[in-house]
Amino acid sequence: MGNTLYLECYSGISGDMTVAALLDLGADRDILENTLKSLPLTGYRTEITKVKKSGIEACDFHVILDKEHENHDHDMEYLHGHSHCKNENHSQEHIHEESSHKEHSHDHLHRGIKEIKEIIDAGNLTERARDLAIKIFSILAEAEAAAHNVSVEEVHFHEVGAVDSIVDIVAAAVCFDNLNITEVIIPELWEGRGTVRCQHGILPVPVPAVLNVVAQNGLKIKVTDVKGELVTPTGAAIAAAVRTKERLPERFSVIKTGIGAGKREYDCPGILRAMVIEEEAEQEKNEDTICKLEANIDDCTGEALGYAMKLLMEAGARDVYYVPVFMKKNRPAWILSVLCKEEDRENLEQIIFRETTTIGIRRTAMKRTVLERELRKIDTSFGKVLVKICRDGKAVYFYPEYESLAELCKKTGISYQEAYEIAVNEAKKEV
Fold first, then answer.
1. What is the count of structural domains for the chain?
2. What pTM, to 2 d.p., does this model score?
3. pLDDT tens sequence across 269-328
4. How far is CA 325 from CA 293, 301, 335, 346, in A?
5. CATH of residue 314
6. Those residues with Cβ within 8 angstroms of residue 38's Cβ, 6 or more apart along the chain or in another chain
């Protein structure tokens, strides 16, 4: 069974902060170094150290470029120093901003998304890490394409930015894979305000690329009073690629914490905390009240309805289901039903209005009787399985959770039904 990660982005997020937090969490450094060495990429070295940020010890992941590739503002050069080379020479002048605010220029080669994918494909990555790295870069390319009204194929990143960004993105993908992270919870990204100077001039914060990543991938952003850019496009793209949920469990245990350091000094700690968490066993009362939302929908595509269901579940719905019906004028249609807590109702209603074609939602407060239940991790002969244990007086019922069981089936090769029976029988012995 995979691990659940909570990324606390109260000081923003960047590529190097993410890698550092995952390394501090326990990602294997040797595996990371060997994977990076396997890439057909030169002109850099990496350095992993411990630093203090606002008195807090954190891990720092630093991509140090050779002098001819030197980038004085890590991640920022990639963020804004791309070029769209439609009918243009592939060598252009780029202006870099140093911490001393002096400007200098170099001529650099450019790489398109196709060339970057070829570099990633040539490395010795696992399939899961490779897919994640390519997904992150694709999200970046789509955001930049939208910002400049060009196709993804026309987006080119100059060599300086591409080198450290490829290293950051591949390193992040390798670390996520190595830690066996399968669920990532990111409630929101905290961003600064003001402006930032880049190759294209002075841009407002959040910069266009970050706004596009957020908009295209449904991330939530919170603008703070901190002056400066806390969320980089690379960081936003990583968050968009790995996030599976936006809500934390009501109760959970923190198994381990990793802290990654940012490079810049702001009026905030400048750290990214990554926590492996485990949801605590939940005891439910015999009676409670739940809210039911309903909407009749007769003019929405199956793809849109499926996507809406996914977003509703991620936003905290207890259950979401569709019932086929016939409506006026003999139209085939669906009744969308959502079970939720009252405190989640308004947010879920907004998702329904935004993602479907309905113009009205019915809501009902319903009393229900439920069995006492708890989620418990059971050690079975073929691995750990999450099992829901329900009690009705002296009667006890066992229901293995699908995701954890399916993952073990893939690893062991046994059938789902066989794994289910083993999990139930061994859970009975343990309880």
1. 3
2. 0.65
3. 889 999 999 987 655 557 778 999 999 999 999 999 999 999 999 999 999 999 999 998
4. 17, 15, 7, 26
5. 3.30.70.1380
6. 122, 123, 124, 125
